[in-house]
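Re-run with default settings, no changes from the original entry. Doing this only to confirm the output is reproducible before filing.
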Amino acid sequence: MAWKLALTAGLLVAILGSVCLRAPGRSIERLELRRLVLGALLLYGIGAVASILHRGQLAGLLYASGIVVCSVAVWLSRGSDRGDGPDGPGGGESPQDEQPPPSPDGLPTFDWDDFDRERAAWERREPVGR
């Protein structure tokens, strides 16, 4: 029973680590990422065969190994390359948060008259069910 709790705790650490740990400095190549995912799927498939053959502990170990491999793949896929060029994965430019141009007093303008007209037109609509 204790090994099951240890396995559960280990899997929880692997899954949370893949999401919460700081991303690696370099991203993994797509081909390598696909190989990791394919390896995890292969582990799941062999685990399914072990389940069918009533080898519960072996199946659990294979499933857990597949989960750990997937967690590693998730963590590696979060990597970001520093100094990407325009042709690299990062696209070159960092995104800009575009704001609407402010009015002369510094606040965005809002047409309240247009809003009231649209609201009044919406209130005059007939309900569908009547």
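Helices lie at 2-20, 30-52, 56-77, 112-123. Confidence is low (pLDDT under 50) at residues 83-87.
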